[in-house]
Amino acid sequence: MPDRALAIMAKAPRPGHVKTRLASALGADDVVALYKCLIEDTLRLARSVRTDALAVVCPAADTDDVARWLLAVEIAAQRGEGLAAGLASAFRIFGGRGYRHVIALAGDSPHLDAATIEDAFRRLDGADVVVGPTIDGGYYLVGAGAVDSELFDGGRLGTERALDSLLTRARERGLRVAFTEEAYDVDEQDDLERLADDLRLAPVRAPRTAAWLVEWRARAGR
Is the dihedral of CA 30, 32, 38, 41 positive or negative? Predict the structure, then answer.
């Protein structure tokens, strides 16, 4: 029986389409360039983890652009719009193929250690859902065997209530929840500055992003 499947949530790298909360800190071209580095490093991270299947899940309208950008990886079209629909699609796709443990990974925490994702897979042996919480009240990964599409609240994803909403819905369904370590993702300029500091000390964790941030800081005189 197929065991581990890992899905990376992504979009086509277009201005106004990705990382919109960074638009005030970065120009449109820089937002896109940064986003591409984040996703490429996340894919590199995913490939360092033992899995039986790996795919990038994106909106159906983005599949051609993403396929031209990210080579040698399956590109799967989500059903519906928004991140909640994307997450539900990731579990439906791989669950339908018989995978016992499925993890959906956000694309804006490329600095994670591979051991964190390995830990998430292991925790699914004793839990129905595993969550990687972020310090801002969201989550950078969610894993399960089979998931009710109503587990994900499209109105709360991307807000400080995203994790609370997920946990409430899991409790309502009687699901056992386990947690990996808390981390941060990159949504605001403060997050970006923190990532730049962390990757300056350990660029190997996300080399494309680290190199881009060094160049960005040099241009900005930081």
Answer: negative
For helices 207-220 and 189-201, what crossing angle results, to 10°?
110
Q: Which residue pairs from 45-49 have beta carbons closer than 8 angstroms and sit at least 24 positions apart in sequence?
A: 45/110, 45/112, 45/114, 45/117, 45/206, 46/6, 46/8, 46/105, 46/117, 48/114, 49/6, 49/114, 49/117, 49/118, 49/121
- Tell me the residue range of the domain where 201 lies: 4-148+163-220
pTM (predicted TM-score): 0.94
| Contact criterion met (CB below 8 Å) for 14 and 36 | no
> Is there a domain that residue 196 lies in?
yes
Burial class (CB in 10 A: 0-12, 13-18, 19+), 174: exposed
CATH number at residue 128: 3.90.550.10
**pLDDT (average), residues 49-66:** 97
Q: What integer pLDDT is reported at residue 146 of this predicted model?
A: 74
Residue 111 placed within a domain: yes
Q: Confidence class of residue 151 from pLDDT cuts 50, 70 and 90?
A: confident
Confirm whether 153 is domain-assigned.
no
Q: How many domains does the chain have?
A: 1
